Amino acid sequence: MRPRQALTSPLYPKIRFTFTDHPITVWAGAILLRLYFELIGLRATLTPWLVPFTKTSNNQIPAVDVLLAWWYGLALGAERFEHMTRYRRDPLLPRLLGLPRFPSPDTLRRFFQSFTYRRTTEVTEALMRMSLGAMRPIVLGHTLDLDSTVFCRYGEQAGSLKGHNPIKHGRPSHHPLVAWLSERRRLLWATLRAGHAGTANGAREFLAQALTMLPPGHQIGLVRADSGFFVTAFLAGLDARELPYIIVARLTPLVRKLVIHRIPEADWRSVARGVAVADKMVSLPAWHGQVRRFVCLRQTLTERPDASGRRLIECPGYTYRVLVTSVPFAAELVTRMYAGRADSENRIKELKEDLSLDTFCLQSFDATDAAFRTGCVLYNLLMGFRETVLPVCWFERRLRAIRDLVFLVGADLIPQARRLRVRFAVPPEERAEFLERLRTLSEGLPIAAQLDWDLSEADDVDHASTRAPNATGPTVSPMLQRTGASP
Prior knowledge:
Layout: E1 24-25, H1 31-39, H2 42-49, H3 63-75, H4 84-88, H5 93-97, H6 105-113, H7 117-132, E2 142-148, E3 151-152, E4 173-174, E5 177-181, E6 186-191, H8 203-211, E7 220-225, H9 232-240, E8 245-248, H10 253-260, E9 269-272, E10 275-282, E11 292-300, E12 310-312, E13 315-325, H11 331-339, H12 343-354, H13 365-389, H14 399-407, E14 411-416, E15 419-424, H15 431-442, E16 453-454, E17 477-481
Helix pairs in contact: 1-13, 1-15, 3-13, 6-13, 7-13
């Protein structure tokens, strides 16, 4: 009887499957984030503020490690609490990050459920000030962009109510309020609100709290906001603080009558093809005689068919945008100054799409607020990481690029004598840059005494020859001592 021949593929060579006991991870690049956290002394900052969350269980995970694991999980792409399980099962990642182990999803939920509004405010205020402390000031002052967004909810969580929802009408939601520092791309302050809250509800108090987050030596040079903030109380608050502002006016019938229809055609000044501007001093009845400057932007649809703005039935053929401002510059310059606010929408996308802060929701409103605000602190930390570790060309890239191109690095761990050898799967053309990042962050830190760089070309596990730190070579292998570095 002839033996049965094994089936072979004409396209692929023979593949042999086997198993390995070596711990392997695909997120080895996250060690750069860990080194950055140690560089800024994050653990020392967190410890005193998380003392109230200390537990007495012998099997507990310290509150500092829980919060750090929460940030690592967000930075690596977790979109649900249950996704933390993937990092918990990773045999190598906790050792690279200096954590005893990753907390379970239930541990994270219980951690945030222990937050009250007072604790959330105290902790996040301290952490937000810390994340902004190393930021360089702007000579003429920062541009502060105020905005709100919608977090859709699919349950009956506290604060999840029906309100303005431009994508899913009638769907319950939360309605966060955020304040951005435009030039530095930092989040100055953020808070979570119920879904039925109006855009400007509590905006005056929110602005007052946000200004307390500014580091010493910094100032606000301009405040920008959309038409949701066009309310008398908020404008009066800006005037009382003497903050220059540019805010889009809501085109109510009264505003159209007093501003647009009273501007003679001769007062419109053409600044580009199909674009004209005009300005006018007007006092609305609710302002009790106070006069403010309105800047109007008009675009001709025949010449600019894709022009943004609002179309008015009584003025066909044009789109209009009206700005109320205290800035004394020319009208065309005011419109250009406000145009830069569009970038705040990209920052909101980073919060919602890159960090997935809109998908973490708990039954308690204070717990959801705590998860959201601590995630906002991580946003600023990642901005600082990008400026400190990565080249200048990375400033325009989104946070997901950092995760995909910096943190997504395969590695395995091999015990070797009294050391642990970690081999990074970095392409040869990127190894020099990766090594430079590791050295830049670890130099001068206590962890530097526990790291060694093996630049030899040998792939043999038993090969232990190590060159001097200033040598060059195609492979990069940090050696973590078996004692482990402090997290």
